[in-house]
Design goal:
By secondary structure, the chain is an alpha/beta fold. It folds into 2 domains: 90 residues, no CATH class; 123 residues, 3-Layer(aba) Sandwich (Rossmann fold). The protein is built from 11 helices and 6 strands. The strands form 2 sheets. The chain has a 4-stranded parallel β-sheet with strand order 4-3-5-6, sandwiched between helices. A two-stranded parallel ribbon has the order 1-2. The protein is globular.
Length: 231
Amino acid sequence: QLTTKAMAKILHILGVDFAILGPEESSDGDSQRLAGERGLFEMLAEKNGKAFGKYEFNEIITSDPHSYNAIKNEYPKLGINYPVQHFTEFVAARIEEIKPKLKDNGEVRVTYHDPCYLGRANGVYDAPRTILEAIPGVEFVEMSHSRSNSLCCGGGGGGMWLDGFQWEKAHVRLSEWRIKEAVDVNADILAVSCPYEPPRFEDAAKMVEGASRLVVKDIAELLAESLEVDK
C-alpha cells in the first residue's frame, strides 16, 4: 500500500489522469505460470483482459515487474494486447518535470537492486537509476552485481514459497547474499522496484551482520518523500 500511495502522489503531481482497478484486479498470473500452473495463468489473464476491456485508457502502469512482463510478453500470446510500462519507465521519461518539485531531505547513500523481470527479462536498467540520481541528497552506489549481472532476490519463479529449496541446494538464501552486497558498499538504503523484494530483503537483513541499519524502500516511496506537494 505504501508504494501504491507513493505512485498515486507522483502521478497526481504530474497531472496524470489515472484510475486504479481495485477489487476488479486479479493476480497477473505470472508466478502461477512460472510454477507450472499454465491453466490457472490463462484463466487469470483472461479475467484481467475482460477487466481492462471495460475501460478506455492509453496505457497500463504497474510497479510489479512480474505483472509488467506478463502483460507485455505473455498476455499477447493469448490475444490480450494492451500497452504497458513499468512505473520507473513512466516517471523517468518525465523526470525533468519532477526535478523542480524535489526537496533535499539530507544526504543518504543508496544502492539499487535490479529485479530479474525488469532488468534481464525486459532490459530496463537506466530508468530506475535516472530517478534515484535525480533525488537531491542521494549518493548512488552500485553493488558488485548490478544490471545484467544482478543477483535474483530469490522470490521469482515461485521462490517466494520455496526458501527450503534454496537452503537445501545452495546453503544460503539469495536475499541474504544480496543484503551482504548492500552492506559491503555501506548503503543506508537498498532501493527496489518490485513488490517481492521488501519482505524478502527485510527478513534477510535480520540475519546478516551489519545490516540492522539498512532500510529497504521502493523507488516510488523515495521519490514521493522528496516531492513538495504545494509547488
